[in-house]
Amino acid sequence: MSLHAAREQHNQAIADRNAAWLALARIATAERLAAGDLRRMARRACPGDPWNTQIEFETT
């Protein structure tokens, strides 16, 4: 394999890795936003229950 081909392969591997990390970051952000939405919905559903003891859900 020539040096140029090896460099291109290396650069493509780095690009693929970066794309995978970006996808994971987007998933994690979406999960955090969804967890926040669930907490807000629970607070609206039971306004007199500040600790939301009547609604149980898993956010992890």
Number of domains: 1
Q: What is the number of E strands? A: 0
Mean pLDDT: 78
Question: What form results from the Cα inertia axes?
Answer: rod-shaped
Could you describe the 3D structure shown?
- 72% of the residues lie in helices and 0% in strands.
- By secondary structure, it is mainly alpha-helical.
- It has one domain (1-60).
- The relative contact order is 0.08.
- It has one helix and no strands.
Properties at a glance:
60 residues, 72% helix, 0% strand
Q: How do the helices and strands line up, and which of them pair or pack?
A:
Layout: H1 3-45
Outline of the structure:
By secondary structure, the chain is mainly alpha-helical. It has one domain (1-60).
